[in-house]
């Protein structure tokens, strides 16, 4: 099983998002029309996002089709440690290449501009 290193510059323990006015951040949490299939890791808007282990960057992720959410509609496909996964709400420095554990991947996008009062976070979505 892969052990994630620090994902966000301001959250060395990868503390998970708990409940706020917008819902909960754990895997399986209820959403309006689906079940949450990711895990939300607390991260402040504009914070640096790091590679949790040595990863290969494999292209852009489009999170939403709603133009009202354009400010946070970015992310990246990654693979490493036997996993394929996505990071949502991250503006990556690059969409391809290799990044070593602890190196910068990008910046957390401004979640507060779309979801005022939410606990800003990175959403990790793992594909087995």
TrEMBL record:
Region described as Disordered: spans on this chain: 1-30
GO molecular function, one term: metal ion binding
Top-rank taxon, per record: Eukaryota
Keywords: Disulfide bond, Metal-binding, Signal, Zinc
InterPro entries associated with the record: Dup_hybrid_motif (IPR011055), LECT2 (IPR008663)
Residue ranges crossing the lipid bilayer per the database entry: none
Similarity comment: family membership: Belongs to the LECT2/MIM-1 family.
Full protein name: Leukocyte cell-derived chemotaxin-2
Species in which this protein is naturally found: Oncorhynchus mykiss
């Amino acid at each position: 099983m892969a052990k994630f290193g620090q994902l966000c510059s301001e959250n060395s323990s990868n503390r998970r998002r708990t409940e706020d006015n917008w819902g909960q951040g754990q895997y399986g949490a209820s959403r309006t029309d689906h079940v949450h299939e990711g895990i939300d890791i607390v991260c402040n808007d504009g914070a640096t996002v790091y590679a949790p282990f040595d990863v290969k960057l494999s292209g852009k992720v489009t999170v939403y089709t709603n133009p009202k959410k354009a400010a946070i509609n970015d992310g990246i496909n990654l693979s490493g440690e036997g996993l394929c996964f996505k990071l949502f709400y991250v503006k990556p420095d690059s969409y391809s290449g290799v990044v070593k554990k602890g190196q910068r991947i990008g910046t957390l996008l401004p979640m507060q501009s779309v979801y005022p009062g939410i606990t800003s976070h990175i959403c990790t979505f793992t594909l087995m």
